[in-house]
TrEMBL record:
PANTHER family named among the record's database cross-references: AAA DOMAIN-CONTAINING, KATANIN P60 ATPASE-CONTAINING SUBUNIT A1
Protein name according to UniProt: Katanin p60 ATPase-containing subunit A1
Listed SUPFAM superfamilies: P-loop containing nucleoside triphosphate hydrolases
Role this protein plays: Severs microtubules in an ATP-dependent manner. Microtubule severing may promote rapid reorganization of cellular microtubule arrays.
EC number: 5.6.1.1
Chief localization: cytoplasm
Location of the AAA+ ATPase domain: 80-223
Location of this chain's protein in the cell: Cytoplasm, Cytoskeleton
Gene Ontology cellular component list: cytoplasm; microtubule
UniProt keyword list: ATP-binding, Cytoplasm, Cytoskeleton, Isomerase, Microtubule, Nucleotide-binding
Length: 332
């Protein structure tokens, strides 16, 4: 039985390797680099790992997940969206949502940033964009997630725009346009490639890209219930004292982003350790056991200290700008 399991595991591994080796596009070296740097076949994030944002989850499920589960329904006028843009203040969970989408629908995940597609050689950045979409079609169904897309696709014609930057934008627009118009599987079904993008500056992106990202979803700061859920998710790996009032912490963190709230929980969870090592020498700290350091549960006083130190990172003016852009250009 043991040898059978080993054989099956090695066979699966070889099968995965052979599938990768089957890609035979014009730029094998670029494809190998992209596979190494941006391909993530198992992001491992579920919907339950993302606190709140129920409306954003519903919209993403309708735009991305359901077309993969019900391809016969999403035909003609119901065709899948070419792309989805998630915008909102920093630290609200846009990247986490993208990974959850890829996990929930079982697609191959390409995590791309502007640095990934940058090259000092003339013409290579455009080739990378083309190769990325070729790879995505090869591994279809797949999700291409472009984080901070505003740094890659600012408005064309802006002052100081370099010619190479303009060519990359043009190639990206062409590839998004034809993302699902070619290539079919062996049974005749189209190879579905979904483009997900995220930005903190939606007003900076090119108008033509905004049109191609047909679903534009606002990811707001967490509300009271979402903050409670996020605090519970953050504290699930540590012991919590009975005096901790999660509702009170959630009330006092209004205006905090998801990242801000995580920082509050992290800081509070480390206060017990800080008390334990206070006044001790380096050798004494090294000789302390893990149980000795971590046996103190996180108490309400730890949250009081953390809240006094960790302030919100998103300004009301920033939120107002996002809400104004949502009212003008949002499509969700």
């Amino acid at each position: 039985m043991y040898f059978l399991i080993i054989f099956l595991q090695s066979s699966d591994a070889e099968e995965g390797k052979s599938k990768k080796g089957q890609y035979e596009g014009p730029d094998m070296d670029l494809a190998a680099m992209l596979e190494r740097d941006v391909l993530d076949s198992t992001p491992g994030v579920r919907w339950d790992d993302v606190a709140g944002l129920s409306e954003a989850k519903r919209l993403l499920e309708e735009a991305v997940v359901l077309p993969l589960w019900m391809p016969e329904y999403f035909q003609g006028i119901r065709r899948p969206w070419k792309g989805v843009l998630m915008f909102g203040p920093p630290g609200t969970g846009k990247t986490l949502l993208a990974k959850a989408v890829a996990t929930e629908c079982g697609t191959t995940f390409f995590n791309v940033s502007s640095a990934t597609l940058a090259s000092k050689w003339r013409g290579e950045s455009e080739r990378m964009v083309r190769c990325l979409f070729d790879l995505a079609r090869f591994y279809a169904p797949s999700t291409i997630f472009i984080d901070e897309i505003d740094s890659l696709c600012t408005s064309r014609g802006a002052s100081g725009e370099h010619e190479s930057s303009r060519r990359v934008k043009s190639e990206l627009l062409v590839q998004i346009d034809g993302v699902n118009n070619s290539s079919t599987t062996e049974d005749g079904q189209p190879k579905i490639v979904m483009v997900l993008a995220a930005t903190n500056f939606p007003w900076d992106i090119d108008e033509a890209l905004r049109r191609r990202l047909e679903k534009r979803i606002y990811i707001p700061l967490p509300n009271f219930e979402s903050r409670k859920a996020l605090i519970n998710i953050n504290l699930k790996t540590v012991e919590v004292a009975t005096d901790v009032d999660i509702d009170e912490v959630a009330r006092r963190t209004e205006g905090y982003s998801g990242d801000d709230l995580t920082n509050v929980c992290r800081d509070a969870s480390m206060n017990g350790m800080r008390r334990k090592i206070a006044g001790k020498t380096r050798d004494e700290i090294k000789n302390m056991s893990k149980d000795e350091i971590s046996k103190d549960p996180v108490a309400m006083c730890d949250f009081e200290e953390a809240l006094a130190k960790v302030q919100k990172s998103v300004s009301p003016a920033d939120i107002e700008k996002h809400e104004k852009w949502q009212a003008e250009f949002g499509s969700a």
